[in-house]
Design brief:
It is a single chain. With 899 residues, the protein is mainly beta. It has a single domain, classed as Beta Barrel (Maltoporin, Chain A), CATH 2.40.170. It is 10% helix and 47% strand. The strands form six sheets. It has a 22-stranded antiparallel barrel. Strands 10, 11, 12, 13, 17, 18, 19 and 22 form an eight-stranded mixed β-sheet that branches. Strands 1-4-5-2-3 form a five-stranded mixed β-sheet. The longest helix is centred in the last third of the chain and has 14 residues. The chain is globular, with a radius of gyration of 30 Å. The chain starts with 8 loop residues before the first helix and ends with a strand. The relative contact order is 0.13.
Length: 899
């Protein structure tokens, strides 16, 4: 059923333009006299159809044309560049992360797990591996852009409509329903600095057969990697000691054993950069190119995506539908090359029977020895699939619409990681000859084995590939209905109801050979898996209070069952729209929201990693050094950690509110200003390692080893013995687990506007601007902690503000767009100051050769800027906030036939 509104042409035109008010919707301006009432559609944030995106909460719309004209490469690229996406995330091109084959966004800087991502209004399976080893999220890397009609972004709590996860907002990726004919699209590009080339081929089409409408799409993509060596500014490390390629140390004295002329014989390694380096502790072979040689700053990707849909008109009142999506992707990257340290699984040194000295040997193996740098690549094979079937139509005997459907989604990822085999110690040191009275392994190694270059065959004998299998899935049955309930003087009250039943699960299965001692890694890599069920029911109402005032109300109850217990939450929201004049809209909203505990936090068996930096308060105190100048403070990389899950976690609670104004004085001009505020309590977070280290230091210094707080802190921090020959007294590992403790709050403003300048001879010029600024952001790790000002925190790499602006000139067969992106300040890598704001410019030209053929040329980062950050050394640019790629260009050809 289509809901009809009586609007005069001016109001109708203003509403149509509001589709672009809060976002960069690319709508070609029409003569205001030809404006018509927009059709009723379901807009993200409500299940009640309405005639545009205006409502109590702003909705940003990105169209398929925007993705092309504004220089976006794919769906993720379009989303990550939106001004509301202010949060710093570790994406596929970040480097050494838990999820190098995935990309996520962080609306309002609240983390990727607080934004709900939907495909056609339906949930997708989470990425199988937890982001940063802790939280679950939706991967945006592999969604095909060829069948995307538009993307809608709702910022703020929406749990009363969609349930869990919608605390920071909702991203709804809406696919095309039909196609008239067929399109072949070919796109290829590269960079002016070299590397990172990519190619894409798409074939999309559809056809109607009487009552049957079909749509399909095939997408093939290839993206080449970008190596650090491809960029001169980070091809080698400068200003610091070069990386050790070969070294032999006397552990008792801490001095290196002189290697004579060995380094000269290995000088051709790492592109001829290996030399003898002399430090205070002696000399060793080293190169400044080791790290950059084995590091990709952009992953290599090869993906194939298929999509198909069908709608069959069973009767005038009922339509059957089916949608299927399948994709496979191989991501390849490299973050560190093969290296060996003697006895790395124990104390990293041995008793040399030939010299009667405790020694530590190390070796970094070069590309020249193994047959090329790609030989040590790590790669992931991912497969995604989803299926949705159901029926929609009109409930017999009523004017109400309904939809009943079933959705299943599966994500599988296989990780192929090169690892040293368990025989690597014996390869370099020979057979172990027992242990001494202290339990230290005894060897009688031949020094020539350490200094002799390897052959590819020898390298193959000491390395292998560990394969882990990870998957996640979700199934949902849903029933929804909407229609007019009854009449009020100002119009009909519209209602929408929804009921859902779902189940989801995941499993992380490491290579079983790890626990069998096949690889030179510590055993104890456990399977992590879990499932949970979800039940939900909700109701929405749109109430015309007066002709100029409309109110919306929504309430929903969600119940989760997991780990032998239940967790239920009721959420609600309300909003009001007041139109004192046809050109002016005032709006406000208030909503509660929640997030069910991340499944990874609940079921995690055992996970390991390391902190970016750590402060050892106990060693600083023992050494009598103040923290500000302590040699054990803020050392990087920090201590290792061991993480376990907790089945007693509660749901996080969120509250959001907003006020806004939309002014549309004509069909050619509109603007909006919105204030938003989001608060989260009972935030799930891991125990603070820094707080544990502070407690441990205080307890040890005062001699309290038995009180509950002290006993717990001390038991969680494992140290090497004070009299250990190697690393005496240093932190070995920190045990952490998640708890409901943290709180955070953030507020800010969004400003958006559009102006269309029309001429008869020179075409139309469309200008748009969107600006988001975070006004305040505060967080607290534990109750009683000092409230942290995150905007002044130099360890918080979120954007403080972002601005997007575009100018599009349409004339005849030409459409020309210039897109500006201004990024506000963020801290430098050293956390000592803020980097200055930066503006990047994209440009595109689209030319219609004829009615069937379109040619496009796009250039991103037109002025070839690469942001510099030397504050913390290599890689000399702000990783994660900016890209080192430089100028990129694409040529795109689209040919349409059969329609």
């Amino acid at each position: 059923m289509t809901i009809k509104f009586k609007l005069n042409p001016l109001a109708a035109g203003a509403i149509a333009l509001l589709c672009g008010v809060a976002g960069p919707t690319q709508v070609l301006a029409q003569d205001s006299s030809a404006a018509t009432t927009p059709p009723a559609v379901v807009i993200t944030g409500s299940r009640i159809p309405r005639a545009g995106t205006e409502g109590p909460t702003a909705v940003t719309v990105i169209t398929a044309d925007d993705i092309t004209k504004q220089g976006f490469r794919n769906v993720f690229d379009a989303l990550t560049n939106q001004t509301q996406n202010s949060g710093f995330v570790q994406g596929a091109d970040y480097g050494n992360t838990f999820t190098p084959s995935a990309n996520a966004i962080s609306l309002r800087g609240l983390g990727p797990n607080h934004t709900l991502v939907l495909l056609n209004g339906r949930r997708m399976a989470d990425f199988p591996i937890a982001y940063d080893g802790t939280v679950n999220f939706t991967n945006l890397a592999n969604i095909p852009s060829s069948v995307v009609e538009r993307i809608e972004i709702l910022s703020g709590g929406a749990s009363a409509v969609y349930g869990s996860d919608a605390i920071a907002g909702v991203v709804n990726i809406i696919l095309k329903k039909k196609a008239d004919g067929y399109d072949i699209n070919v796109k290829a590009g590269g960079t002016s600095r070299g590397g990172a080339e990519d190619q894409r081929v798409q074939f999309t089409g559809g056809k109607s057969f009487d009552k049957l409408t079909t749509l399909f799409s095939v997408e093939l993509l290839e993206r080449e990697p970008l190596w650090s060596a491809d960029r001169d500014f980070m091809a080698q490390k400068t200003g610091v000691a070069p990386t050790s390629v070969l070294g032999r140390k006397n552990v008792s004295t801490g001095k290196y054993v002189d290697l004579g002329d060995t380094c000269s014989s290995l000088s051709d390694l790492y592109g001829g950069s290996t030399v003898k380096y002399t430090a205070k502790a002696g000399s060793y072979c080293a190169s400044p190119k080791v790290g950059p040689t084995y590091w990709t700053t952009q992953t290599k990707n090869s993906s194939q995506n298929l999509f198909g849909s069908a709608n069959y008109e069973l009767s005038p009142e009922t339509t059957l539908y089916a949608e299927a999506l399948f994709g496979q992707n191989r991501s390849t990257q490299n973050t560190r090359g093969p290296s060996w340290t003697s006895r790395s699984l124990t104390d990293s040194y041995f008793w040399n029977q030939n010299t009667n000295v405790y020694e530590a040997w190390n070796r970094y193996i070069s590309p020249e020895e193994i047959g090329g740098v790609e030989r040590y690549n790590r790669y992931w094979d991912d497969q995604t699939s989803s299926l949705s079937i159901g029926a929609r139509g009109v409930i017999p005997g009523t004017s109400w619409n309904y939809e009943a459907g079933y959705t299943a989604s599966l994500y599988k990822s296989q990780d192929h990681r090169p690892r040293a085999l368990a025989n690597i110690d014996s390869f370099f040191l020979g057979p172990q000859l027992g242990v001494d009275k202290s339990g230290v392994a005894i060897y009688a190694p031949d020094p020539a084995r350490l200094t002799k270059r390897l052959t590819p065959q020898e390298f193959d004998s000491i390395t292998g590939t560990a394969v882990s299998n990870d998957k996640s899935w979700t199934n949902t049955v849903s029933l929804s209905a909407n229609g007019d309930a009854f009449e009020l003087p100002a119009g009909p009250v519209k209602l929408a109801a929804v009921a859902e039943l779902g189940k989801q699960g995941f499993s992380n299965t490491p290579d079983p050979r790890i626990n069998e001692g096949y690889f030179n890694v510590a055993t104890g890599s456990d399977v992590t898996a879990g499932t949970r069920k979800r039940y939900a029911a909700g109701l929405e109402a749109s109430i015309p209070v007066l002709k100029s005032v409309n109110a919306t109300l929504a309430g929903r109850y969600d119940k989760y069952s997991f780990a032998g217990r239940d967790d239920g939450k009721f959420t609600y929201n309300g909003g009001v729209e007041w139109r004192p004049a046809q050109q002016l809209l005032l709006r406000g909203n208030y909503a509660t929201s929640f997030r069910a505990p991340d499944m990874n936090y609940i079921f995690k068996a055992r996970g390991t990693g390391y902190y970016a930096s750590t402060t050892d308060y106990y060693r600083c105190a023992k050494a009598g050094q103040p923290i500000a100048s302590c040699e054990f403070a803020n050392y990087s990389p920090g201590a290792d950690y061991v993480q376990t899950g907790s089945k007693d976690l509660r749901s996080e609670k969120g509250r959001s509110s907003g006020l806004g104004i939309v002014w549309s004085p004509s069909a050619d001009f509109d603007m909006s200003v919105d204030y938003w505020n989001i608060k989260i309590s009972d935030l799930v977070t891991n125990l603070s390692a820094d707080k544990l280290l502070q407690d441990e230091a205080a307890c040890r210094l005062k001699g309290d080893l038995t009180s509950p707080t002290c006993a717990d802190a001390i038991s969680r921090i494992t140290r090497y013995a004070d009299n250990a020959l190697n690393k005496p007294g240093e932190i070995k590992s920190i045990l952490v687990n998640p708890i409901n403790a943290a709180t955070t709050s953030v507020d800010g403003i969004d400003i958006a506007g559009k102006y269309v300048f029309r001429t008869k001879e020179y075409g139309n010029v469309i200008t748009k601007a969107n600006y988001s600024k975070t006004l305040n952001k505060h967080s607290r790790q534990f109750t009683g902690d000092v409230l942290n000002d995150d905007l002044e925190d130099l360890t918080n790499y979120d954007w403080r503000d972002k601005l997007n602006a575009s100018v599009t000139w349409n004339i005849g067969k030409w459409s020309n767009t210039v897109f500006f992106q201004r990024y506000g300040k963020v801290p430098n890598a050293a956390g000592t100051a803020f980097l200055t704001p930066t503006t990047l410019v994209n440009a595109s030209v689209v030319y219609r050769l004829n009615e069937r053929t379109t040619l496009s040329v796009a250039v991103n980062n037109l002025f070839n800027q690469v942001k510099t950050d030397n504050s913390a050394g290599w890689p000399y640019y702000p990783v994660g906030n900016f890209s080192p790629v430089g100028r990129q260009g694409w040529v795109e050809l689209n040919y349409h036939f059969g329609g």
